[in-house]
Write a structure and sequence with these properties.
The chain is α/β, with parallel strands linked by helices. Helix content is 42%, strand content 16%. The strands form 7 sheets. The chain has a 7-stranded mixed beta sheet. Strands 5-8-9-1-10 form a 5-stranded parallel beta sheet, sandwiched between helices.
Length: 640
């Protein structure tokens, strides 16, 4: 392993004791800088480096857990720290509701505030000493003149008058609004989900507004995330969750580089306070999923595009030796960052790589949903630590996959168990119009999706396909495509009949077109009154010409079918190399790849005269094409 050998040589140079390459993760050198720890996002890393130099805004769109926040933190490390500033807010003697803003070099703010507090303390001590001397003088004189009661009363009145008539020195001490240490990197502020006050700054409410007890206005001013990110990085994940008013204010802050702080509540006493403009010269890194773009203020996105970059995050990377080495380094990084779990041996590393291939849902690739993979690594390490094992092994990783299952996977297991208990899952015999489909819940859980079809006379003008089961937009469109398939492959006039399609148990709704093959098979079975084998499950998208197209989540769908007791699974041939099921399921199922609906019907339907049925299907198909095109097309022979 080249990276491990190189790491071993580095360790040997740094220490007098040579490090033996034992194939474990402990010999892997973890880069110190965050930007060098990012894997699989080469384009994003290049953009972040450029944006840090030029101080450009960046918007990163992609799947959760692919490293967006890590890249934002890495950008903060790359920004020059010598430009950082402290922000002070001073009282305004002319207008107390408009505090004065001043900026100084980082580290100087604390010194200034400390000096002011020391000076105020000295003045307060001197004032209190003078008051005390005066009080003692009054009381002493009263005792000499034998009017001690009147002397005490006079002293009390004089004390109260002087106490509230003289200014309080602490009210004149400036407040340190934003502070930085000279040795720290540029600030990184995560403003995800912040309300208006937390994002833009606020002025605290003061219930004591009379009698000399009120808190001075400048002391009630609170910095917002945009101000704390001055000369640094402001990171906002799920940018579309911010209200349009907040996005508009954020746009103003980005354009002007400064933003006054005022009270965010109209009923608060702070609503009267508005500071001078407060510096907020930050670099914004916005992040989100694809739907984030729709919810963004158009002007805000335009500002980012006009003065920055837009990056789409990769969710997989090619499975080659170079990227495998990077993934192994990621494992070492997670172990180092956790600090409490043992290192992984070679078998554990290989099992993690195997799981990364499974979760990619794409042949020849490794997943880049590293947050989920990091969770698996930590759970495996916890199991090893619980057993006081020196190293984490493959057994621990396999057990961790069972322990750290997603909610969707746990729900899927419960649903499969329940459907078998109540005989909702039919895995034997044949039935007309009923087909076992397959679906995915979340990103890593499969489920069996029974679909039923029935034929009834049309109730209105012309027949239609009626699908129930909380179908969403793409699923509804796929049903329309099935209508074309039925016309093409049955040769029947369906204008006078309604075809009812029912998705069983889809209480959370159905999205996607991967059930197209299942729906078409169930409908053809109902139309032709031909039984369907129930020991078969299927998945695949359909073109209007009857081609079986690839789908996602094929590995998890096959495993769900195996758990339900189904023996054969029909999948698109294009997905065959995507299949990476666990060893325990390989002997339980037979995977059948197909390319067309004719192959599906040949395998799944059980007609009385198979040869005649298949020949009729092909004849109808070509006859339909001939009638449409008006040209002679030879009908191929049926080969047995």
């Amino acid at each position: 392993m080249p990276a491990q050998e190189e790491a071993g040589q580095q360790n040997k140079t740094e220490d007098s004791t040579p490090v033996v390459d034992d194939g474990t993760s402990r010999i892997i050198q973890v880069p110190e800088s965050l930007i060098d720890q990012v894997i699989g996002q080469d384009h994003a890393v290049e953009v972040i480096r450029k944006a840090a130099i030029q101080r450009r805004h960046v918007m990163m769109i992609g799947t959760p857990g692919t490293g967006k926040s890590m890249l934002a933190k890495a950008m903060a490390e790359l920004l020059p720290k010598e430009e950082m500033q402290d922000i002070l807010v001073y009282p305004n003697s002319e207008d107390s509701n408009e505090p004065i803003i001043r900026t100084v070099k980082s580290g100087r703010g604390k010194e200034i505030v400390t000096a002011h507090k020391t000076e105020a303390r000295k003045k307060a001590q001197l004032r209190n000493t003078l008051i005390m001397i005066l009080m003692l003088g009054i009381i002493g004189y009263s005792f000499i003149t034998y009017q001690w009661l009147m002397g005490i009363i006079a002293a009390a009145f004089v004390f109260m008058a002087l106490r509230y008539a003289t200014p309080r020195e602490e009210q004149m001490v400036p407040k340190l609004l934003v502070s930085h240490d000279k040795t720290t990197t540029a600030p990184f502020v995560d403003a995800t989900g912040s309300h208006a006050g937390a994002l833009l700054g606020d002025v605290r409410h003061d219930p004591f507004q009379s009698g000399g007890l009120e808190t001075p206005a400048h002391d009630r001013v609170e910095a917002g995330a945009i101000h704390r990110a001055h000369k640094g990085v402001l990171f906002i994940d799920e940018i579309n969750t911010l209200g349009l008013a907040a996005q508009q204010s954020l746009l103003t802050a980005m354009q002007e580089g400064e933003f006054s702080i005022t009270g965010q509540s109209e009923r608060s006493s702070g609503a009267m306070v508005r500071t001078e403009p407060v510096p907020c010269d930050f670099v914004m890194v916005a992040a989100g999923n694809l739907d984030a773009i729709e919810g963004m203020h158009p002007a805000l996105r335009s500002r980012i595009r006009g003065n920055g970059y837009e990056v789409y995050m990769e969710d997989t990377m090619p499975d080659n030796p170079e990227n495998q080495e990077k993934f192994i380094r990621f494992i070492a990084q997670e172990i180092k960052n956790d600090g409490m779990i043992p290192h992984f041996d070679r078998s554990a590393i290989e099992e993690v790589l195997h799981e990364a291939r499974r979760r990619s849902n794409r042949k020849g690739h490794l997943t880049l949903r590293l947050r989920d993979m990091g969770g698996l690594i930590r759970v495996a390490g916890d199991l090893a630590r619980q057993e006081s094992s020196e190293l984490t092994t493959r057994v621990h990783v396999i057990e961790a996959k069972k322990t750290a299952r997603s909610i969707e996977d746990q729900i899927s297991a419960q649903v499969i168990k329940r459907t078998r208990e109540y005989d909702l899952a039919v895995v034997e015999g044949t039935q007309i119009g009923r087909v076992n489909g397959l679906a995915v819940m979340g990103s890593d859980a499969g489920s069996v999706l029974p679909i039923m079809a029935a034929i009834t006379p049309a109730q209105g003008d012309g027949g239609e396909i009626i699908a129930t089961g909380l179908l969403k937009e793409i699923a509804q469109e796929s049903i329309k495509n099935v209508g074309a398939i039925l016309k093409r492959f049955t040769g029947k006039d369906i204008r006078n009949i309604d075809i009812h399609i029912q998705f069983i148990g889809t209480y959370q709704g159905v999205e996607g077109d991967s059930a197209s093959v299942t729906v078409a098979t169930a409908a053809i079975s109902a139309l032709e009154q031909i039984p369907v084998r129930q020991d078969i499950a299927m998945t695949g998208s359909l073109s209007v010409r009857g081609d079986v197209l690839p789908i996602g989540g094929v590995t998890y769908k096959i495993e769900a079918a195996a758990k339900a007791g189904i023996k054969k699974i029909i999948i698109p041939k294009a997905n065959l190399e995507d299949v990476l099921i666990e060893e325990e399921y390989k002997s339980m199922v037979e995977i059948i790849p197909v390319t067309s609906i004719e192959e599906v019907l040949d395998i799944a339907l059980v007609p009385e005269d198979r040869d005649t049925f298949l020949h009729r299907i092909k004849s109808i198909t070509h006859a339909t094409t001939k009638s449409i095109l008006g040209s002679e097309i030879p009908v191929p022979r049926t080969v047995i």
